[in-house]
Design a protein that fits this description.
Blueprint (H helix, E strand, L loop, with lengths): L2 H11 L2 H13 L6 H24 L3 H10 L2 H14 L5 E4 L17 H12 L4 E4 L4 H12 L1 H4 L4 E5 L4 E3 L8 E3 L6 H13 L6 H6 E3 L6 E5 L6 H28 L14 E2 L2 E2 H12 L1 H9 L13 H7 L2 E6 L3 E6 L4 H12 L6 E4 L3 H12 L3 E6 L4 H10 L2 E3 L4 H15 L3
Parallel strand pairs: 1-2, 1-12, 2-3, 12-13, 13-14
Antiparallel strand pairs: 3-4, 4-5, 6-7, 7-11, 8-9, 10-11
Length: about 425
């Protein structure tokens, strides 16, 4: 009998919804020191096993189908079947963004839900490495990873953290390869620009920006975050202003490097006003990044700072520098300057190398343009599948819809994770 027919039969003949409720209760039941509560848990576990045993005895691959029925909905199981038919292999590494992917300020109170942490533990126990890939600082990620997954998993040697969107990689348990500062490989010119921006970003900021923003404690990237609730009107307004300010500050620093060869020259903090081919470096910088990202252009237009210049006319020596520097805008969340030579793809490749995943087929989950780069890398290299929340950036969502349509509701990354769990179960069958 075809697998599709077997799965149809599984979900038609068995009360899988009730089975899943028992499984979730047994898995997520909180640790309490109560005899009555533990007896209730034992009763639920006995009923769960009895229902699973019915399935085990009724199918040739009974254990696999019992796990499918207990953990995945009908839709998830059939999606897994489609993925298995299309790719013919299991996922062997998870590459996961955190903010607005595993957790959401809107739906999960900015905490990773317990059911999500549980399924990640299931993957770990199945020997699947996990790469946490985020724009957050290392200390932030280590903190919630240890709190959520436990120190044993974090230090198992099978978990890696790509932090600050690829400027560093932390893989506990791998000796000299445990922490790799990828930004140290950049040349002096680019590092000078970042050092100058970082040293001036708060001291030179207008008073309202100093009050309304804070600087994320990065090792390398320069990230301005709102002192308001992410997603709020106040956060959107202050981050729009911060984006314009960062672009102007970047233009000043790049102008210094181009004009003097070193940002250590004193006395000129307005080198964005230097003219190249009749226009200021600031205007050329605005033009360059507006052409790169429609969202940045929209902000510049709304703030009245968008210059009507031809992006193809950006002077070559300036373009050569800007081509290596990334400016990222996350609406009502952050404005950031990073290195295009150091992005999540570079970090993920280094993490996979340390984890010894030689032939990756990854589940890449994320919501932003930086995650999209990893998704495109996986797609180009036949190295995985992509998933995104429904509120992801437009380009990210389009990519996911154009590939396998693995779109999940805000705060419900667990749905895709269980789908991939089912894929891996099915891929084991002969």
């Amino acid at each position: 009998m075809e697998r599709y027919d077997l799965v149809y039969r599984l979900y038609d003949e068995y009360e899988t919804t009730t089975l899943q409720e028992y499984q979730e209760f047994v898995d997520i039941f909180p640790a309490v020191d109560s005899r009555v509560a533990l007896e209730h848990w034992q009763d639920a576990n006995d009923e769960l096993e009895a229902r699973k045993n019915e399935i085990r005895s009724d199918f040739a691959a009974g254990e696999t189908f019992a796990e499918l029925a207990a953990h995945t909905t009908r839709d998830q199981a059939f999606t897994a079947l489609d993925l298995e038919a299309k790719y013919g292999c299991a996922v062997n590494v998870l590459v996961l963004d955190v903010d607005e992917t595993l957790r959401s300020a809107g739906n999960t109170d900015n905490e990773i839900p317990r059911e999500t942490l549980h399924v990640l533990t299931e993957f770990h126990e199945a020997g699947i490495p996990i790469v946490i890939c985020t724009g957050q600082t290392l200390e932030n990620v280590k903190g919630f990873a240890i709190q959520g997954l436990g120190s044993e998993i974090v230090h198992s040697g099978d978990l890696s953290i790509v932090y600050e969107a690829g400027t560093g990689v932390f893989t506990p348990g791998h000796g000299a390869d445990t922490k790799q500062l990828l930004y140290e490989d950049l040349d002096d010119e680019i590092r000078d620009v970042f050092d100058d921006v970082r040293s001036r970003v708060l001291p030179d900021a207008p008073p309202d920006l100093r009050r309304g923003c804070h600087l994320q404690g990065n090792e390398f990237n320069v990230t301005m975050k709102p002192n308001y609730e992410t997603g709020s009107t106040h956060a959107r307004e202050i981050i729009d202003e911060a984006l314009v300010y960062l672009l102007e500050l970047l233009a000043d620093s790049v102008g210094t490097v181009l004009a003097f060869g070193s940002v250590e020259e004193e006395g000129n903090t307005e080198n964005g006003g230097i003219e190249l081919e009749g226009e200021s470096i600031t205007d050329w910088t605005h033009t360059f990044y507006a052409d790169q990202d429609p969202e940045i252009r929209a902000v510049l237009e709304s703030e009245g700072t968008y210059p009507d210049l031809d992006p193809d006319a950006v002077p070559g020596d300036l373009k050569a520098v800007l081509d290596r520097i990334d400016v990222a805008y996350y609406e009502a969340d952050a404005a950031e300057i990073g290195s295009l030579e150091l992005n999540k793809v570079v970090g993920v490749e280094r993490a996979l190398d340390v984890l010894d995943v030689a032939d990756p087929f990854a589940l890449v989950m994320g919501d932003s343009k930086s995650d999209l780069r990893v998704m495109r890398w996986a797609d180009k290299n036949d190295a995985g599948i992509a998933a995104a929340p429904e509120h992801a950036s437009r380009d990210t969502l389009e990519h996911v819809l154009d590939t396998d349509e693995l779109v999940f509701d805000r705060g419900r990354s667990v749905d895709v994770l269980w789908t991939v769990y089912a894929l891996n179960q099915l891929a084991r069958l002969e």
